[in-house]
Specification:
alpha/beta, Beta Polymerase, domain 2, five-stranded mixed beta sheet, 3 helices
Length: 151
């Protein structure tokens, strides 16, 4: 299946998503409240069979926070990127995808620790690297005069 065929399949399977061709992979932009349902569809669809979460990355786009997921089908050897944006910077919450991809557990903890995005339904959401005295150092508006060394 090439990217054009995959995009057509994704448009049918996930009508709530915006589907575009990225530089390398087909990209879906999904509302945050639909993320878990979309992942279940992508994993269980026999034609697409996205059965592996390769990477989960937190992002700060300035006015919005977000999460980018890279999915792979080990059966068909194709990949897609799923993006979601959260407009509430003060209380960013998105559903956990641990129930769909168990490997998301530590990735979600890392994103929570460094960006402050909470994953509802996560089995053990707590800081992974930093203690509670830190804020969220990967946010663009992060300031820390004690722990960060500058020139």
């Amino acid at each position: 299946m090439d990217n054009t065929q995959m995009a057509a399949s994704l448009v049918k399977l996930v009508p709530e998503a915006s589907v575009t061709q990225g530089k390398q992979f087909v990209e879906l932009t999904v509302p945050p409240e639909k993320i878990r349902v979309v992942f279940e569809k992508l994993k269980n669809d026999g034609e697409l069979s996205f059965d592996m979460l390769v990477c989960l990355t937190g992002m700060d786009w300035g006015s919005e926070l977000g999460v980018i997921y890279h999915l792979r089908s080990t059966s068909f050897n194709h990949m897609a990127v799923v993006k979601t944006r959260i407009t509430d910077r003060k209380n960013p919450v998105i559903d956990s995808v641990c129930s769909v991809f168990a490997g998301a557990e530590y990735h979600e903890r890392e994103v929570y620790d460094l960006l402050g995005i909470k994953f509802s339904g996560h089995p053990d959401l707590r800081r992974l690297f930093l203690d509670s005295t830190w804020g969220f150092p990967l946010r663009k508006d992060y300031k820390d005069d004690v722990n960060i060394v500058t020139k």
